[in-house]
Write a structure and sequence with these properties.
846 residues, ABC3_permease_C, transmembrane, 28 helices, 15% strand, nine-stranded mixed sheet
Length: 846
């Protein structure tokens, strides 16, 4: 007989009888779905807005010739414009300008309006009528005017006719807002000037940053990009709008992938919680299932009944998770922007939009997780023999399969497969096998717990006191229920431990790295953001000659492109002694001593070594000053600030090769007795434009950097908190279900004279012992998972290496919380179990 006749009533009765257990299951699934769906919505909204920005800035261009941040010779433009495949070409100057009074920059473009109207019409300003009446009709060519996009006007709280002041070098440059750009979108914060005015006012004479090209009809963009490549100077590449969007998305791809995996961790933990609750509920209801079998319900009917219960939990949890995730995404985008703390989408505040496909996927994941969590208990309930299941004490028979040699062999196989997966390389730049290794290690650890529990509880020394003896005998001779409870504890606590160790290791590594990189007592910067501010040779001389400054070291930070498909690499020119580079760089390899006749040395970060396959001693070519110049890789250094790599070069060598004398930062060593505050006051007075300099001491830089780090890991902390909460709920649900499943046992103990208080103490001791074993196993397994995160996932995702650091205080607090929660929950659940009359509890056995 099928179970459909009883199914609905059975499920409704179970949920009404145990509303808290039902609610916990729904919340567990909802939390995982909400986290994953929110992360997906936020990332999708931010990437969509950034893609719209790229399209708005490129307009109708088929190809963009993009050069380094410092620019390339404008003499390239006429050669490109005369190519037979080119219908129109528009030269562009591009500068990220610092706005007075703001730390973030505004992208300023210089365009030739007569050429841009054919290629990028969104970048041709519309003159405001009132401004045109005041100043005539030549505002498009006026060197003192700028046209702002609607988003930029809103962001800066300006309107046509207002003045916009930008910083060039250390001097202010005032521009009049003459009108509005057609370019629209929340992220399109851009200003446009005449190209000649931009080169003059922004001090970019003779250089361009890009050339936008509209091809003639029938010309293939990819083929043209390949054909024009030999004509381009070093460091200039031909890219399509698709390539630009791809490169933009690459900036945050690894960050987004890791966030999605962490979100799925919460869903995975929820699935384990559903398994724990369903398994214990199935044990408690074995007699009910046996009675259904006795009256004609088939095995398949029982299987469908239990799986249907999990499906109902999954549907309710997934639906709630989608609603919560959408609200969470909307709140994050409104109040924190689209970067999720990672700093990848600065200035982007897109709006969340409902997308049916991701919603359907996460809904299906939530339902599937709940159903999978119910599958094993359902199979066990369907396999039970009705006559045997109707007898008391049959619960351990059903859990005996968990302790078979086959289960142990499966655990060992999963652990071995996880170790092998951890040794495999990344796939398309993502640690796919690293994630697989974590899943396999977690699965193997959970499967091994029945054997571990049986071994531990059987070897614990016995006590002469009655209650401890009862506790140890129960755990040793009937470990099945304890094993089920352990699954949820081990899964949740190991994930808590792994994330805590990974984040702590990263934070400590960043702090140590900053201390090595910041040897001077005072630092200054021309601007906190953008590339329009710089220190000229005169500024540098004034800084070095300021009374109280004993020594000054200057740094030039710019960017070069080694691969058009990847984001640019930072080039850092600073004083470096080739014989002792470790004095300025945190090297990870022994430095190579330069020999006579060798190419000039450079030191590459770990990311450059991984992404471009460079190694110490290798001769490489870098695009500098429009040429490919030879260098020798003299060492690899650790850099936690630039995910896509940095190359350090001695400042004097950089100036000799490029003739670039501008710098952006300075490290200052002060004379004896001069306080940093005194030096700052003197520098502001002695350097022209010194009031615009940004000063910071090493402690302030470290504090600000660690604040950014914590902001970047804010979502990780949130997901870890969700895992902790789900884990604690799971402990409560599992021990509560265990106590209810043992009401007949407690009734018999009451007949033998054991007091209610003693049974409560016994249950609390059992809960504490089981939780303690789960915590110890979770700590061991979590350490293994953390090693995979630190030594596999993190280097393959971000190309950073670090040492393992154990946050003992946090781990001790988490472990104590789990053990105390288990003991208290077991104690409270004993009151519910003992509320049943002792005679009624055991009469089924008479």
């Amino acid at each position: 007989m099928p179970a459909g006749r009883f199914g609905a009533a059975f499920l409704i009765g179970e949920m009404r009888g145990h509303p808290l257990r039902t609610l916990i299951g729904i919340v567990a699934i909802a939390a995982g779905v909400a986290m994953g769906y929110a992360v997906q919505l936020i990332n999708r909204a931010a990437l969509t807005e950034l893609s719209a920005t790229v399209n708005a800035l490129m307009g109708n261009a088929d190809i963009e010739l993009r050069g380094p941040r410092a620019g390339f010779d404008e003499a390239l433009y006429p050669h490109i414009a005369r190519l037979p495949e080119v219908a129109a070409a528009s030269p562009v100057v591009e500068v990220d300008a610092r706005i007075a009074g703001r730390d973030t920059s505004l992208k300023l473009l210089g365009v030739d309006v007569f050429r841009a109207q054919y290629v990028t019409p969104n970048l041709v300003g519309r003159v405001d009528r009132e401004e045109q009446a005041k100043h005539g009709g030549l505002d498009l060519l006026d060197p003192d005017t700028v046209f702002l996009s609607p988003a930029a006007l809103t962001w800066l709280a300006l309107k046509p006719g207002d003045s916009l002041t930008v910083q060039v070098g250390l001097a202010p440059v005032a521009l009049r807002v003459a009108g509005v750009l057609p370019a629209s979108g929340e992220a399109v914060r851009v200003g446009v000037m005449d190209i000649g005015a931009a080169q003059w006012r922004l001090q970019r004479l003779g250089t361009l940053q890009r050339i936008d090209i509209k091809l003639k009809a029938g010309v293939d963009a990819d083929a043209f990009a390949r054909s024009v490549a030999p004509l381009l100077p070093a460091g200039v590449a031909a890219v399509t709008p698709r390539d630009s969007a791809h490169r933009t998305s690459m900036l945050s791809r690894a960050y987004r992938a890791n966030l999605n995996v962490l979100a799925l961790v919460a869903l995975f933990t929820g699935a384990f919680l559903v398994f724990t609750m369903q398994a214990l509920a199935a044990l408690r209801r074995r007699a009910q299932f046996a009675l259904l079998r006795a009256i004609g319900v088939t095995r398949r009917g029982v299987l469908r009944l239990v799986v249907s219960e999990g499906a109902v939990l999954g549907v309710l949890g997934a639906a709630a998770g989608l609603a919560i995730g959408f609200a969470l995404a909307a709140a994050v985008l409104r109040y924190a922007g689209g970067d999720l703390g990672g700093g990848y989408f600065e200035g982007v505040q897109p709006r969340v939009h409902f997308d049916a496909m991701p919603a359907a996927i996460f809904f299906a994941l939530g339902v599937a997780a709940s159903m999978l969590g119910s599958l094993a208990p359902a199979l066990e309930a369907a396999r039970a023999r009705p006559a045997q299941a109707l007898k008391a004490g049959d619960e351990e028979v059903s859990t005996a399969r968990l302790r078979t040699k086959r289960t142990l062999a499966g655990a060992l196989a999963a652990l071995c497969a996880g170790l092998v997966s951890a040794l495999l390389p990344p796939v398309a730049g993502l640690p796919v096998f690293g994630y697989l290794a974590i899943a396999l290690l977690l699965l193997g650890g959970v499967l091994a717990m029945p054997a571990v529990a049986r071994l531990v509880f059987a070897t614990l020394p016995r006590s002469r006191h009655a209650l401890p003896q009862l506790v140890l005998s129960q755990l040793a001779n009937a470990p099945g229920r304890a094993t089920i409870g352990l699954a949820g504890i081990v899964a949740s606590f190991s994930l808590m431990t792994a994330m805590a160790i990974m984040v702590s290791s990263f934070r400590v590594a960043v702090d140590d790295w900053l201390q090595l990189l910041l040897p001077a007592p005072l630092y200054l910067r021309a601007s906190p953001g953008g590339d329009s501010a710089f220190l000229s040779p005169g500024d540098q001389a004034a800084i070095a000659g300021t009374p109280g400054v004993a020594r000054a070291e200057f740094l030039r930070a710019t960017q070069i492109s080694l691969d058009p498909s990847l984001p640019p690499v930072s080039l850092l020119a600073r004083p470096i002694d080739p014989r002792n580079p470790a004095a300025r760089l945190p090297l990870t390899t022994a430095p190579l001593v330069p020999r006579d006749g060798d190419a000039p040395p450079v030191w590459i970060s770990e990311a450059v070594a991984d992404l471009y396959g460079m190694r110490p001693g290798q001769r490489i070519a870098l695009p500098l000053a429009g040429q490919r110049l030879p260098f020798t890789v003299a060492g690899i250094w650790r850099d936690y600030a630039r995910q896509f790599g940095a190359i350090a070069i001695d400042a004097s060598e950089y100036r000799r090769l490029t003739r670039d004398t501008r710098v952006t930062d300075a490290a200052l060593w002060l004379a004896s007795g001069v306080a940093p505050a005194q030096a700052i006051a003197r520098l502001r007075n002695s350097v022209p434009g010194g009031e615009r300099l940004e000063f910071a001491q090493p402690g302030e830089i470290r504090a600000a950097s660690l604040k950014i780090f914590d902001r970047s890991f804010a979502v990780t902390y949130l997901l870890e908190a969700v895992a902790v909460i789900i884990g604690l709920f799971g402990i409560g649900a599992s021990f509560g279900a265990q106590a209810l499943a043992r009401t007949r046992e407690f009734g018999m103990l009451r007949h033998l004279g054991v007091m209610r208080r003693q049974i409560g103490i016994m249950l609390a001791m059992e809960g504490a012992l089981v939780a303690l074993l789960g915590v110890m196993a979770g700590l061991t397994l979590g350490l293994s998972l953390a090693m995979v995160l630190v030594h596999v996932v993190n280097p393959q995702s971000f190309h950073w290496t670090m040492s393992l650091h154990m946050p003992w205080g946090l781990l001790a607090a988490l472990a104590s919380a789990v053990v105390v929660a288990a003991a208290l929950t077991a104690l409270m659940s004993s009151r519910v179990a003992m509320s049943v009359d002792a005679v009624r509890a055991v009469r089924d056995d008479w």
